[in-house]
Amino acid sequence: MKLEKITAQLGFKTPLHLHPLPEIIYVQIGTLYCETSEGESLTIEAVESFASSQETVHYCKNSDN
Q1: Over the chain, what is the mean pLDDT?
Q2: CA–CA dist 12, 31 (Å, integer)
Q3: How far is CA 50 from CA 6, 28, 45, in A?
Q4: pLDDT over threshold 80, residue 34
Q5: ∠ at Cα 42 (40, 8), nearest 5°?
Q6: What is the DSSP string of the chain?
Q7: C-beta separation of 62 from 10 below 8 A
Q8: Which of 37, 39, 43, 61 could cross-link 57 (Cys pair, CB 3.0–4.6 Å)?
Q9: Between 64 and 44, where is the model more confident?
Q10: Phi-psi map region of 38: left, alpha, beta (phi>0 left; psi -120 to 50 alpha)
Q11: Residue partners of 6: CB distance under 8 A and separation at least 6
């Protein structure tokens, strides 16, 4: 399990990537949108969290307007 703090500015978007270890993602402020290479998506609002799956290719972006 990995814990990491990331500050995502407006317009932030990761390249397609994967995580070799599971992670817990917690959105403190704003909205995070993630999508897998297979088209599955997830939107996480402020004060929500989720467990990322291992070995799933995806990208995430700050989706606040």
Answers
A1: 87
A2: 11
A3: 15, 12, 11
A4: yes
A5: 125
A6: -B-------TT-BPPSB--SS-EEEEESSSEEEEEETTS-EEEEETTEEEEEPTT--EEEEE---
A7: yes
A8: 37
A9: 44
A10: alpha
A11: none
Q: Copy the structure tokens of residue 35.
A: 């999508």
Structure token pair of residue 57: 């290719």
Using pLDDT thresholds of 50, 70 and 90, give the confidence band for residue 7.
Answer: confident
> Which tokens sit at 36?
């897998």
| CA–CA gap between residue 40 and residue 58 (Å, rounded) | 9
The answer to whether residues 20 and 52 touch, using CB atoms and an 8 Å cutoff, is: no
Distance CA 65, CA 55 (A): 30
Say which amino acid occupies 53. Answer: S
